[in-house]
Design a protein that fits this description.
With 398 residues, the chain is of the alpha/beta class. It has 14 helices and 14 strands. The chain has a 7-stranded mixed β-sheet, sandwiched between helices. Strand 3, helix 5 and strand 4 form a beta-alpha-beta unit. Bound molecules: pyridoxal-5'-phosphate.
Length: 398
């Protein structure tokens, strides 16, 4: 390996959300990675920091060229005037919701899904409409472990109040790449019922080695024209703190309305580091390829460990993201006033010092699950797994 994915980095007392929000708990929750940034990003941020002037900057053409070049490998051709800078994926989704729906309208999500999707809809006084994913607890194949109920999707699209769908592509927390055929079915139904698809592709580069995701906008233009695609280097390169993202749409009308809304919301101004860091990130493909190998090997370690040491917990088959979805249904007994996964997560925090996200956070149909972040050096991963084993042994006899 050319890059350093082994160092144990002390992130305590750095005002880190992951490490400093809670005391003495090993954090395998929020989606950031315990690795150093790629060297080119580190150099870019240091260059800026050393310069000593931290005033206004602007979105230049080079950053758009970076996005355009990167997405060529995914078969998506983009033009500069089809891209809009935004300070993050969630800020841009918030702006899209405000610009393309009214208070009281519905926004559809496919649960279990990234919990902030719920908040961004509800905080803007829109209603959440769920198209619950179908789970097959016996399936060993990522294609069938979770599938979409298309009849239900169409029913919900038919409601004239349903204006938008937030698609998670690849999907957090189930870790699934949606294939082209599925995306086409979604796109055709959305088009038929005039629903705008917002494809959140923040996890797109974090696929198993040799696998590629399919951009929603790479579908036939007639199908995908009524859509936005949210992209960012922040998950891929662990630079969420630098707040850089972009929204892509070929649809001029959608583009102009969103451009205006991002300006109204003041989400269109980059900070001093974000533009150069984004350009540096998209020059760091060899670092990313090593990272993907590490993440895949971590996933295999978890799978083997669970099978050997904690057979009550099943790793749901996945092919993307560093967030593993753990089926704990076999441990679910008795009453749980606040939800089984909340109880189990709290128990593990208290008794084993391990913090995993409770599945119910991602929707009620996620309550049999915990989500585990495995983007860390192997040594820490094993520590986390041993803590999980100890915690589950205690849970079984409680
Ligand atoms: C699916 C998804 N979208 C968006 C975000 C957050 O994006 P941002 O920090 O750019 O707002 C995350 C973070 O984990 C995520 O998983």
């Amino acid at each position: 390996m050319k890059y350093n994915f082994d160092s144990i980095i002390d992130r305590k007392n750095t005002n880190s959300l992951k490490w400093d929000l809670f005391d003495d708990e090993y954090p395998m929750w929020v989606a950031d990675m315990d690795f150093y940034a790629a060297p080119l990003i580190y150099e870019s941020v240091n260059r800026k920091a050393k310069h000593g002037v931290y005033a206004y900057s602007f979105v230049n053409d080079d950053v758009y060229d970076s996005y355009i070049n990167w997405w060529k490998k995914y078969g998506l051709g983009m033009q500069k005037d089809e891209l809009l800078f935004a300070t993050g994926v969630m800020p841009s989704i918030a702006s899209i919701i405000r610009a393309f729906s009214d208070v009281g309208d519905n926004v559809l999500i496919q649960t279990p899904v990234y919990h902030v999707f719920f908040y961004v809809i509800l905080d803007n006084d829109r209603d959440v409409v769920e198209n619950q994913l179908i789970y097959d607890s016996k399936s060993e194949d990522v294609k069938t472990a979770y599938t979409i109920d298309f009849d239900d999707l169409e029913e919900k699209f038919k409601d004239p109040k349903t204006k938008l769908m937030l698609l998670c592509n690849p999907h957090n927390p189930i870790g699934k790449i949606w294939d082209g055929e599925i995306l086409e079915k979604i796109a055709a139904l959305a088009k038929k019922h005039n629903v705008i698809v917002v494809s959140d592709e923040i996890h797109c580069d974090l696929t198993d080695p040799n696998l590629k995701y399919v951009p929603f906008a790479s579908l036939d233009e007639k199908l995908s024209n009524n859509s936005f695609t949210c992209i960012s280097p922040s998950k891929t390169f662990n630079i969420a703190g630098l707040q850089s993202s972009a929204v892509f749409t070929r649809n001029k009308e959608l583009y102009e309305r969103l451009e205006r809304q991002l300006a109204i919301d003041y989400f269109n101004h980059p900070n001093i580091f974000s533009i150069d860091a984004t350009i540096a990130a998209y020059k760091s493909e060899d670092w990313l390829n090593e990272l993907r190998e590490i993440l895949f090997s971590n996933k295999m370690i978890v799978d083997e460990f669970l099978k050997a040491e904690i057979p009550e917990i099943r790793l749901v088959p996945a092919n993307a993201t560093y967030l593993l979805w753990l089926d704990c249904s076999q441990l679910n007994r008795g009453d749980h006033e606040d939800g089984f996964s909340n109880d189990l997560s709290e128990f593990l925090r208290e008794k084993a010092g391990l913090f995993l996200s409770p599945g119910v956070q991602f929707g009620e149909n996620g309550d049999d699950f915990l989500r585990m972040n495995i983007a860390c050096p192997q040594e820490l991963l094993l520590e986390g797994l041993n803590a999980l084993k100890i915690g589950i042994e205690k849970y079984k006899i409680k």
